[in-house]
């Protein structure tokens, strides 16, 4: 490795914190205008990626933390392996606490959970500082310092942009040395429907990748909030295989496999979009779609 390469740092960060503390806004502000929710996954990491911060000497990949965003799952029995594995897989955790609210029970609860993930350093990020006075910020920094033993504490405002670079620098400081995980151009700006389709395809391929390496395509026909419910998104998707024998594999004995695929895909989609999802998934046979230009276009593979 050359000297320049060995100075390069790359790795993963995630943000935790109570709802509404400004995690999404901060992530988007750090990533800049090129916000990309992408499901691209390096190596074995299977997390939804929020965005990638490119620096001359570093690449910071911000991943979503399902569960720790939402009190329902946080307080429920679902502070489960998914959340914990995300927390242990990242190189640094940003714990967001707003400057505007007193430190409370919810913050303490999350702080304890984060402290239990001993392996991963936690940086406390005091958000929304544009809404607080200097004294308020100073007091909050002190209160936060008493909450747990953080690697660092940094005040920031995603809205005014104050200290955004500092937050990035601090997070990057906790990344290991290593080459970029993504090429600059690899950062896609794909629409959500494409990402959702990709998550369903991934779930369908699990366990049958060898049998059906390239034969599954997924198209999300429609995504819309359930009428009268602002917490539920209906996702209508079609999965295409090339032959009846493949359909049988995907469906599995008594439909068990398809049910599993639906459940796993739904969880991933919920984590990506941060909302509850009803997934309506059907399988269709598109005979030899890989060799048919018209079908390829329909399935989203353009020349
Ligand atoms: N003034 C100000 N408002 C902010 C800032 N960051 C976030 N907000 C606002 O706070 C609200 C919540 O922000 P989000 O980024 O959605 O918070 P979140 O933590 O991702 O929320 P959940 O998705 O519910 O977990 C939004 O109305 C934001 O516009 C900030 O730095 N300054």
Automatic annotation (TrEMBL):
Annotated positions binding GTP: 17-24, 64-68, 127-130
Region (G3): 64-67
Record InterPro entries: G_ERA_dom, GTP-bd, GTPase_Era-like, KH_dom-like_a/b, KH_dom_type_2, KH_sf_prok-type, P-loop_NTPase, Small_GTP-bd
Gene Ontology MF term list: GTP binding; GTPase activity; ribosomal small subunit binding; small ribosomal subunit rRNA binding
Domain Era-type G per the UniProt entry, residue ranges: 9-177
Membrane topology: Peripheral membrane protein
G4: annotated segments: 127-130
Keywords from the UniProt entry: Cell membrane, Cytoplasm, GTP-binding, Membrane, Nucleotide-binding, Ribosome biogenesis, RNA-binding, rRNA-binding
Primary location: cytoplasm
Region ranges (G1): 17-24
CDD domains linked to this entry: Era, KH-II_Era
UniProt GO cellular component terms: cytosol; plasma membrane
Chain positions covered by the region annotation G5: 156-158
Domain KH type-2: 208-287
Region (G2): 43-47
Pfam families xref list: KH_2 (PF07650), MMR_HSR1 (PF01926)
Subcellular location: Cytoplasm; Cell membrane
GO BP, sorted A to Z: ribosomal small subunit assembly
NCBIfam families: era, PRK00089.1, small_GTP
PANTHER family the record matches: GTPASE ERA, GTPASE ERA, MITOCHONDRIAL
HAMAP family: GTPase_Era
Homology family: Belongs to the TRAFAC class TrmE-Era-EngA-EngB-Septin-like GTPase superfamily. Era GTPase family.
Self-association state and partner proteins as the record states: Monomer.
Function: An essential GTPase that binds both GDP and GTP, with rapid nucleotide exchange. Plays a role in 16S rRNA processing and 30S ribosomal subunit biogenesis and possibly also in cell cycle regulation and energy metabolism.
The protein, known as: GTPase Era
């Amino acid at each position: 490795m050359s000297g320049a390469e060995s100075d390069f740092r790359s790795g993963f960060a995630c943000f935790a914190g109570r709802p509404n503390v400004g995690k999404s806004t901060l992530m988007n502000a750090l990533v800049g205008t090129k916000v990309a929710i992408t499901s691209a996954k390096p190596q074995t990491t299977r997390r939804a990626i929020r965005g990638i911060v490119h620096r001359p000497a570093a690449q910071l990949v911000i991943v979503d933390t399902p569960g720790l965003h939402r009190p329902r799952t946080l307080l429920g029995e679902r502070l489960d392996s998914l959340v914990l594995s995300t927390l242990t897989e990242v190189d640094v955790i940003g714990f967001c606490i707003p400057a505007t609210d007193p430190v409370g029970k919810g913050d303490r609860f999350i702080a304890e959970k984060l402290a239990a993930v001993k392996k991963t350093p936690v940086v406390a990020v005091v958000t929304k500082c544009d809404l607080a006075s200097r004294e308020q910020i100073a007091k909050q920094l002190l209160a936060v310092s008493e909450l747990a033993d953080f690697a660092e504490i940094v005040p920031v405002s995603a809205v005014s942009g104050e200290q955004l670079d500092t937050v990035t620098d601090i997070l990057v400081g906790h990344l290991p040395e290593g080459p970029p995980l993504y090429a600059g151009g690899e950062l896609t700006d794909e629409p959500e429907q494409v990402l959702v389709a990709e998550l369903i395809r991934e779930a369908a391929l699990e366990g049958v990748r060898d049998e059906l390496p390239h034969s599954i395509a997924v198209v999300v026909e429609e995504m819309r909030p359930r009428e009268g419910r602002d917490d539920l998104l209906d996702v209508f998707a079609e999965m295409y295989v090339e032959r009846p024998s493949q359909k049988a594999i995907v469906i599995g004995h008594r439909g068990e496999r398809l049910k599993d695929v639906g459940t796993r895909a739904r969880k991933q989609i919920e984590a990506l979009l941060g909302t509850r999802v009803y997934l309506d998934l059907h399988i269709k046979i598109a005979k030899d779609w890989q060799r048919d230009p018209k079908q390829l276009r329909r399935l989203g593979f353009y020349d």
